[in-house]
Every structure is written in C-alpha cells, then in structure tokens.
Amino acid sequence: MKCEDYRARLPEYWEGALVDEERADLEMHLAACAACRGEARSLGEIWRGLGNIPEAQPPSDLRRRFYERLESYQQGALETPPGPSWAARLRSWLPTHPAWQIGLAAAMLVVGFFAGYQMDNRRDAAQVSQLRAEVNNMRQLVTLSLLQQQNASERLRGVTYAYRMAESDTEVLSALLETINHDPNVNVRLAAVDALHGFSGSPVARRGLIQSLSRQESPLVQVSLIDTLAEMKDEQAVPALRTLAGDQAANPQVRQRAEWALGRLSH
Amino acid sequence: MVTESDEKLMAAVRAGDLRKLAVLFERHHRALFSFFVHMNGNRDLSQDLVQDVFFRILRYRHTYVDGRAFPAWMYQIARNASIDTGNKRKGELQLVTNREDDEDRSAREPVSELVAADEAIRRRQEIDLLRRALARLPDEKREVLVLSRFQNLAYEEIAAILGCEVGTVKVRVFRATKALGEIYFELAGERAS
Ligand SMILES: [Zn+2]
Fold this sequence. Notes:
The complex is a heterodimer.
Chain A: H1 3-8, H2 10-15, H3 20-32, H4 34-50, H5 60-79, H6 86-92, H7 98-121, H8 125-147, H9 152-162, H10 170-182, H11 186-195, H12 203-213, H13 219-232, H14 238-245, H15 252-265
Chain B: H1 6-14, H2 20-40, H3 43-59, H4 70-86, H5 99-108, H6 114-136, H7 139-149, H8 155-162, H9 166-192
Helix pairs in contact in B: 1-2, 2-3, 2-4, 3-4, 4-8, 6-9, 7-9, 8-9
Bound molecules: zinc ion.
C-alpha cells in the first residue's frame, strides 16, 4: 500500500472504525513513516476539533410548523380520496425546476385544449374529463413548487396558479394555509387568502382560515380573512370573530369589521 | 419497547399511515437542520428546507422502494431540495455565529478556575477558526465532511447518497479533511502574525 492509501484510512482510525488488523497495519506504517505521522498528528487535531463544534439547534418553531402542516395534510387526506396512481408515475419523470414545470404545464394546456376540442366534436366526454384531470395535476405541481420559492413574486405566482385548480386539492390547500400563516410577505399572504375563496366547500379550508384569524398581525390580512369568512357563512367562525371584536389591543377597523361580519353571520 | 426501523416506518407512511412521518421527523429533523446549516450557513433557509424535505417525503412517498436505507433516501431528497432552493443563494454563505449554542455549551462548562476559563477561551477561538475554515471549503468537500463527521452516517450510506463507491468516499473524506486543515492553519497563521 502507498502512503496515500494509508492516509485515506485515517478518518476511520480516528473514529475507531478500523478492524484490528487494519489498525495494526496503519500503526506500523505511522511508526515507520514520518510524513504520514506528521499528517496524522495535525489533521487528527482538526478532526477532533470538528467534534467540539456545537450542533446547530433547530428553532422551536420548526417542530410546531411541521405538526401544524402535517395535521392539515392529514385532515385533507381524509376528506378527499387518494389521487390516481398515474400522478405518482408522472412525477417521477417530471423536471424539478419550476421554469421547466411551467413550460411543461403550458404545453399540456395547449395539447389538452386541442385534444379537448377534437374530442368535443366526437362528443367523447369521458376522455375530455380525463385530460382535464391530467392538466389539473400539472397545475398542482406548478403551484406547489412555486409556493416554495424564496422569491416573494414567485410565491405570488404560485398563489395565482392555485386559482386555476378545478377542484379542492389537498396538497395545494395545505400549502396555501401554510402560506397564510407563515409567509413573511403581506402581499403573498393576502393573495393566498383570496385564493382560498375557491376552497370554500372544504371544511379544512374554513377551519384553517378561522384558526389563522388569531395568528395574523397585519390588519390588512385580518380584514381580508374576516370578509372571506363572512362570505363563506360558516357559523363556526363566530367565537373567533367575537374574540377579535372584543380585543382591546386589536386595530379598531379590524374590530369594526369583525362586528360587521358577526351581524352577517347571525342572520 | 421495540423501536420500529426507519424503513418500516417509511413503508407505513407510503401505505397511508401519515402519522408515522412524525416519528421519522422526531428522529431526523435535528441532524437534517444541522446538515443544512453547515451547507448554507442560514438558519431561516435551513428551517424552510427541513419542512420542505419532510413534505417532499410525503409527496413522493409512493416512490420509496422497500429495503432502501431511509437516511440515504432522505439525504438525497435533502440535496435536491437544497439545489432547487439554495442555488439562488450561492455565494451568500455566511458564518453562522450560533451564539446561543456556544453560550449554552459554555454555561455547562465549569469555569470556576482561571485555568478552566483560559481553556474555554482557547477552545472557543479554535471553534471559531474551524467554522471559518469550513465556510471557505468548496461545497462538495464540505458536504462529504459534514455527512461523515457530523451526521454519523456510515461510509456505505454516504456512498449511496453521493452515488459513488465506498472507496471513493474514504478518499474524499480524507482529502476534504486535508483541505480543511490547510485553510485552518493558514487562518491560524494570519491570526498569529
Ligand atoms: Zn507514509
């Protein structure tokens, strides 16, 4: 064995991961070779030093957000039957970059349109709806990937994509709720509230909006949430609205709006 | 109590028992967070990436193959997530001071004697220097070093994550350590002079 081969074993040696024979072999070489001995000494110091670096501790928020999102994901999964398995197959060959996904989705839309046009002529409604479902799945992928971007304007695009979802989609829904509760940008949060109008048939969406009411600090988002809940006419929102209306610390306009919504819900 | 293997849990998640993801999260989210912090030096970004990884696992659960080592699969997803979102921030790698972590640790250390205090200061300087050296290491070298030194992964697992031979991993870990050492001693020299 050459010196280089012995040196490649050093990290395992420091970790105590070498078998007896290998260790004895290496130690014999170190005893005989000053160059390797020097390297082992100085780099061993580095290796041990790395062990003194304290591990970065995750913020407590990380866990809370995970469980929140898992819960809304699970609730959604109970409400809607699992998607067709072809979607999983489709994903395996999909590009991961959003720009490519958008391009692909756009191409699918065009294909879907023409195919749909042709089939309408043949009055083949079943195949048209199959195609629509596929296009809808492409939209879901694009929406989800856009919502995860670092750039606020890209996330905004993701939210606007959510409008095009033909029906409630569990994953998009949970991503939108996550956006409403945690996106640092007020404009993105506002757009996500608007996008949830399309999910008014879903109890998960309504529950999510009600829970979000107490979390929001931006009066703009609060008013937008109140208006959405008033429109949905969900009586479950009443306690949360009452709390907000009576909250001395809240923005006066927000409290007024909550009063107004309570009036609408009680009729 | 019998603890279920990661692989069993993941198979259950794939079959629709989504609560099992919480067990996997509890086991791995700290290590994953520290991996990302080492790689991008940004706590906020790393927090988002950890969320992203676990929901990618959920989304792609159907693609998990039985018997596949879960950590290797998870870190592969983590690397993809990092590439998708992290690339835009390339060149922004900052030194994470991790003040809270340091203070936590030093608070636990007995500093009753002057000698101990001196030792604590010397050690902190060494850690600071090592962090700076790590931040200067090229991404691929830092990655293999972090996986082997901080994530407690076997060379076989690292080979599966990086898609190379076990022998190659050994050589790469050593070379990364050597490169780190060169940067470290250079920085230490600058400080001394
Ligand atoms: Zn030698």
